[in-house]
Design brief:
This protein is an alpha/beta fold and about 240 residues long. It has eight helices and nine strands.
Length: about 240
C-alpha cells in the first residue's frame, strides 16, 4: 500500500512540475516553493507590450491582460500562495489594460514585490509601483512621458480633456503608491530636454529611487529576501 501511495505522490509532483513548466513557457509564470522558508511565491512576468482589447502582431512579445487578471484573482483566492513577485521588462502598451492590472496587484491582500529588470516604461511605471515594495536593477530604466494615442485624433477640446483626464489618472495612481509627488511626476512627463523627438524623462536605476518612484536598487536576491521577510511578518512560524 505504501508503494502505491509513494507512486501517487511522485506522479502528482511530476504533474505539478509539468504544469509549472507549461506556465513558464506560455505565460512567463512559475511557483517558487523549494525554499527553506517553506513559503510559496507566485512569480508573475510582465514582458514586452501590454496587449489591450486589440490583438497585436504575432511577432510582438506581449502580456495579455485577459490572462493576467484571472490569474491575479486566482492568486488572491488561493490558500497555498503566500506572496507575489512581479518581474517587469515592458515597453508599456494599452493604458486601460495596464492600469487594470496595476489596480488588481495593488488590491491583493498578500505581500507583493516588484523588480524592474531591463525597463518598465510608460504604463509600466504604475505596474512597478503597484506592489507593496519595489526594486530596480542598477541598469534598469523607466521612461515617464505624457499619454499618447495611436490612430486619428480629433483636434477638439473634448479630446484634449480626455487626454488630460487619463494622464491625471496615471499620475494619481503613481503618486498614491510611491513617494513621488504629483507635481514632480508631471514635470518629469513634460520634460523637453531629454528625448529628442518626444516629451518625457528616462530614469536609470538609482535615479528612479532618488525620485521616490522605486524603493530600492537591487536584484532578484534582494527582492526575494524582502518578500520572504514580508511573508514571515504576516505568517509567522508556529
Amino acid at each position: 500500500m505504501s508503494d502505491v501511495n509513494e507512486k501517487k505522490d511522485k506522479k502528482e509532483e511530476l504533474d505539478a512540475r509539468i504544469s509549472d513548466n507549461e506556465n513558464i513557457k506560455n505565460n512567463g509564470e512559475a511557483t517558487l516553493d523549494e525554499n527553506h522558508h517553506n513559503h510559496r511565491i507566485y512569480l508573475l512576468s510582465v514582458i514586452g507590450e501590454i496587449e489591450g482589447h486589440e490583438c497585436l502582431s504575432s511577432n510582438t512579445k506581449t502580456t495579455k491582460y485577459e490572462h493576467v487578471l484571472p490569474k491575479l484573482a486566482e492568486i488572491e483566492d488561493a490558500d497555498n500562495i503566500d506572496g507575489v513577485m512581479l518581474l517587469l521588462n515592458t515597453v508599456g502598451g494599452d493604458i486601460e489594460s495596464g492600469l487594470a492590472i496595476a489596480e488588481m496587484v495593488a488590491s491583493l491582500s498578500k505581500p507583493t514585490v516588484s523588480l524592474v529588470l531591463g525597463g518598465s516604461h510608460s504604463i509600466g511605471v504604475p505596474l512597478a509601483v503597484s506592489t507593496d515594495y519595489s526594486f530596480i536593477v542598477p541598469t534598469g530604466t523607466m521612461v515617464i512621458h505624457p499619454v499618447r494615442m495611436n490612430g486619428m485624433v480629433i483636434g477638439a477640446p473634448p479630446t484634449y480633456d480626455y487626454f488630460k483626464q487619463m494622464q491625471n489618472r496615471i499620475i494619481g495612481f503613481i503618486s498614491s503608491h510611491c513617494d513621488a509627488k504629483e507635481d514632480r511626476l508631471e514635470k518629469l512627463m513634460m520634460n523637453t530636454t531629454m528625448l529628442t523627438k518626444d516629451l518625457g524623462t528616462i530614469l536609470v536605476g538609482e535615479e528612479a529611487v532618488k525620485e521616490g518612484i522605486i524603493r530600492e536598487v537591487g536584484g532578484m536576491k534582494e527582492a526575494l529576501r524582502k518578500l520572504h521577510g514580508m511573508i514571515a511578518e504576516i505568517y509567522p512560524k508556529l
